[in-house]
Fold this sequence. Notes:
The chain is an alpha/beta fold.
Amino acid sequence: MSHPSSHLQQGAPPKPAGASDWHDWSAAWTKHVPLLTGRTDLTVLVAPGAAGTAPECFYPDLNRIEVDATYIAERPDVTDPAKARHKRLVPTGYGLLVHGAAHAAHSRWSTPPGTPPILAAVADMLEESRAEGRQRGRRRGDRRWLRHVVKTLLDPDDAAVDDLWHAGQLAALLLARVDARIVTSKDVRPVRAAVTGVLGRARLRQLRDIWREAHICEDTDADTMITLARRWCQVLGIDPDQQCDVPEPDAGLFSGRLAAALVDYLAVAAGVTPAEYAAALLAHRHSPPSEWDRRDPTEQEHRAARDLANRLRQARNQHPEPGRRPSAIPPGRLRTRQAIAAEAQTAAGQLPTAAPWQQRAQLPPEKPRLHLAVLVDLSGSMDRYTETMSSAAWIFAHAARRADATTTTIGFGDRTTVLVPPRARPNQVLTMRTGLATATFPEAVKVADQLLDLRHGRTLRMLAVVSDGCLDDIPAGQQLVTTLHRAGCAVLWLHPADPLADSELTGPDQMWRHTFTQTTSLTVADPVAAVAAIADAAVAALTQA
C-alpha cells in the first residue's frame, strides 16, 4: 500500500490505459465533485491504474482527482454513475472520491522547500485525518463514505514491525481518525491496545496532543504542520536534522502485535474473519504467476505421496495407546456387573475381590503434528532444481493430507510465491520458473511463519530451505533464522553440490554456499537427494518427538 504522501502529487502523470472505457464515470464525477469540494475548477479521472501507486490521488497542479477504477468494479457498466443511487453500490470507490475531494478542498498547503523527507512524511500522515475531519465538519454525511475507504487506505505493511516509528504511523493513520470523528473508539480498540503496548501511555498521549493541534490548523498553514511534524519526531526520539529519511522496517524482524491488531481491524471492516482476510491478502500478493505450467501428476508421484504418508503415519503412531485396568476404587468407569458382585461378596461377609471400576492408564503425550515449510530458491543458478521441487510440493501436500500434517511450499526470487498453501490438495503439479534474483528470502521466511505459525505453535515445526546460499540480504536472513531457532523451529538448509561460477555472482554481498548458523546444513548431489533429505528429516523429527 502506498504512503499517504502519494495521495498528493505534483506534476503531470501519464494518462492511464483504459480511460476511455470509464469516460462516463469521469464525466459524471467531474460534474459531481463541485458539490463535494465547493470548487468548480476540478476534474476527475477514473481509470484502471489511475492515481499511480495509490487508490486515489489529487494533483494540485492539474486540479485533478484520479481514482483507480479497480477499487470501483471490474467493469464500468456495474451501475450508472450519473444516478445518486450508484454510490450505495460502489461505496469504496465513492469513498475514494470523497477522500480525494477532502484533499482538494482542505489540503491547500505544500511542503516548504528544503524540508527533511521525514518531516514531510509525518506532516502528510497528519494531513490524512485533518483533511477528512474538515470534510466531515463541512459535510456530515460524507463520514459514511470515508469510513468505507479507511480499510482501502490502510495496509498491514503500515505496521510492519513493532517499533516506535511504525506504532506512531499507525496512530496517525487510524487512531487520529477517531478524534476526526471518522471511525469510533470501539472500532480501533485492539489497535489502540497494541499501539499503547509499543509506545507507552505517556508517549501516545503526547502524539494525540499533536494530531489534535493539527486538526485545528488552517488549510494553508504549512509552517504549523511542519512544526507539529518536528514535535512528533522528537516524541519518538528521532532527530530529523540527523535522520532525514523515513525509517525503514528491519527486514530481519517478524511482524508483531501492531500488524496483528491492524489485520483484525481491517478484517472487521471488510466483514470477514482475520484468518479469511489474511488468506485473501496472501493470495493477492503471493499467488503463482499465470504463465507457470500445470500438468497432471504421474503414477510415480501418486506412489511417492502414498509411501511418504505411510512413513509419516508410522513415525507419528509409535506411541502406544493407553491401556485399561480394573480398580476397586474410583475414579474410572463403573462396571455394573462387577459392582453387583462386590456388594454380594460384602453381604456374604467375604472380602470383596471384584473390581467395579475400570481405569485408563496414564495417557501418553499427544501425538506430534508436523508443520513443514519448504522454501525453494528460484534464482537462475537453481534452474535444474525447480521441476523436481515442484513435483515434491505436490507430493508433500498429498502425503501431509493423509498423515495429519501441514505443509506449504514457497518459492523466493524476484518475488515470493506460495506454490502450495497449507492444507491444500492440488489436483495438478504447478511447475516453478527461475528468475534472476533472491531478494525476497526474508519475506519468504515471514510468509512461512504467517502460514504455519513457526514461532509460536505447540506443534513440531520445521523449515527446509533448498538454496545455494547466494542471497541478497544475508544478515536479515540470518536474523530471521536465529529467531526461528530460538523459538524451537528446526531449520534444514540443503546446498547443491555443484558450485556456482564466480561470474554468476551479482553483488559484493553475495557468496557461494553461504552457511547460516543455527541450521542443519547438508550438501545434496541432485534435486532427488534434496527431496529425500527433507522427507527423511520430517520422519526422523516425528520419530524423535
